[in-house]
Amino acid sequence: MKVFEANISYQTLSILRDVLSRIDNYKSANNKMVDCFSIHNFFDTQTEYELFLNAISVIETIALESDRAEYGDFQTNSDLAKSVTQLLKSQKKANPKVIIEPTCGKGNFIIAALSTFDSLEKIIGIEIYKPYTWETKFNIIDFYTTNPTESKPEIEINHFNVFDFDFKSLLNKSEDEILILGNPPWVTNSKLSSLESSNLPQKSNFKKHNGFDAITGKGNFDIGEYITLMMLDAFHTSRGNLAFLVKNSVIKNILFDQNLKKYRIAEIDKYNIDSKKEFGVSVDAALLFCNFNAQPEFSCKEFDFYQPTTAAKEFGWVVDKFVSNVDLYRLNHNADGVCQFEWRQGIKHDLSSIMELERNHNQFVNGKGEEIEIEEDLVFGLLKSSDLKKIVLNQPRKFTIITQKKIGQDTSFIKHSLPKTYDYLHKNKQYFDQRKSSIYNNKPDFSIFGIGDYSFLPFKVAISGLYKTYHFSLILPLEEKPIMLDDTCYFLSFNSLDFAVYTLILLNSKKTKEFLKAITFSDAKRTFTKEVLMRIDLYKLAIEFQVENLETEIHSLNAIYSLNVCSERWKDFVVALEPKKVSKQMQLF
Ligand SMILES: C[S@@+](CC[C@H](N)C(=O)[O-])C[C@H]1O[C@@H](n2cnc3c(N)ncnc32)[C@H](O)[C@@H]1O
């Protein structure tokens, strides 16, 4: 059954009919609701009260669910809310007097708090969606009806936009223990802009990202993150705690920003939940907990919410480095530095159906299954993330057309020198012109990105940015042409096979693997990025690497892949990596 689009139980409905039966005035009705259930300001106006009386006499059984996407609406189920409050009570010894639920939805956290904490004096809920404010109030009445002996703290459920709410006005002077509890919306600002929603803080570019970050996705943030920061801003110097269910990415960002913000928060813990089971969605999420008014801390211990006794690991800041595993990082921190070679991302063309080809009995076939006739000049082997499984590769599954040698290079030469290639590209020009990314605007026809002199060096050492396998591959040329990688891969390129093999061995060493495990986050969209890979200090790895191990590794690569490499140039390699030579590094290869 629904009243004002809010679910209501038959029990609460008949109680409300009974309690309000002879009351005409909304102020008297409000007093009655305080007497019975300690809920303040139950009705906002006389008109609303009259509509309400009408609604509970003529019950709506069907109400349209409005589209809730812009409100990041994932209501916490009652069992999970109760497990959270019990964990707070038993593990964290939380005993709040005041609870603030900044986006309280249907009120499951408020009910869980009422049934768990016995010293509560005040509960404040805020919610933008009016039917939920009703449902929260109905749920509270239901709770008291089923549990008549429970004490009744003062409760206010505010129909309000959290971004306009003045939380600082709630700062309590009596130093009562506060608990900020809840599950703020799970929706990103870019999703909101695609919905043309205004459910955003006024200063929505709160991270001050620039336009380029917006293109690369760095300017994308969850509004749950903004609300968490609002709470920390308002309450970090109060006595109490925060306990929020949020996406893992939000917790990671809060910890990342803690180095600058230095909130007075400590005992920062993350309890991983099974979001598929709890919310029916595949998003990594967890309960974020912290204590307020403490010496600032900069790392977070990670637990399993369902078996929270021992921490699985700790992530956060180790001095000036942000890492995913503090212990592992401490053991391998000496690999951290600046890579002597520049990591590059592979080719980007956003048009695989036209630009990616397969070779079928000497005939090229494009992604649409069309057999195509082009000169071989601009055709290069192509490897994608899923191809980078072996240690050494020289047989691509696919091919691609490389229309430029440098970003922005004029492509008019194709028409004169390679007429068949031009015909094919020109026939499909409309698809090139329809590419959405703004990087293609005002660029020569058939432009590609992720291309430069480095793309044409014969030997590459590559890794997939997408997979969580800490494994690098050596890419050899095919018929004297370098093989290209797509933009899901990152690579270093070399003129010398020896140097490529030495680099491969260092990158596949246990030390590098553990170092990368310590600095990469398993829930990142891309495990490996240029930023991460540029932290691998090859010089520091090389000077520690035992020459006997190098020889064993070279021997086994030679035996399997007939590379014919020897360790003779290792010394030159180490000298080339020496910090003083960094500036001219790429020219050496
Ligand atoms: C993830 S749900 C969680 C609800 C509740 N905290 C719980 O744990 O069940 C997020 C809630 O935030 C509410 N919400 C979204 N934007 C809001 C805003 N600007 N101000 C207040 N509430 C908002 C949604 O309507 C929704 O009820």
Summarize this entry quickly.
The protein has 589 residues and is of the alpha/beta class.
Question: Can you characterise this structure?
Answer:
This protein has 589 residues and is α/β, with parallel strands linked by helices. It folds into three domains: 2-57, no CATH class; 70-318, Rossmann fold (3-Layer(aba) Sandwich), CATH 3.40.50.150; 344-588, no CATH class. Helix 4 packs parallel to helix 5, helix 9 crosses helix 10 and helix 12 runs antiparallel to helix 18 (510-519). The termini are far apart. Mean pLDDT is 90; it is low at 61-65 and 209-217. The structure holds S-adenosylmethionine. Residues 71-76, 103-105, 108-109, 126-129, 132, 161-163, 182-183, 185-186, 199 line the site of S-adenosylmethionine.
Q: From the structure provided, what is the oligomeric state, counting identical versus distinct chains? A: single chain
Helix content: 25-40%
- CATH level 4 superfamily of the largest domain: Vaccinia Virus protein VP39
Distance between the termini: 74 Å
How many β-strand runs?
24
Radius of gyration over all CA atoms, rounded? 30 Å
Summarize the biggest pleated sheet.
11 strands, mixed
- Based on secondary structure, the structural category is alpha/beta
| CATH topology type of the largest domain | Rossmann fold
The CATH architecture of the largest domain would be 3-Layer(aba) Sandwich
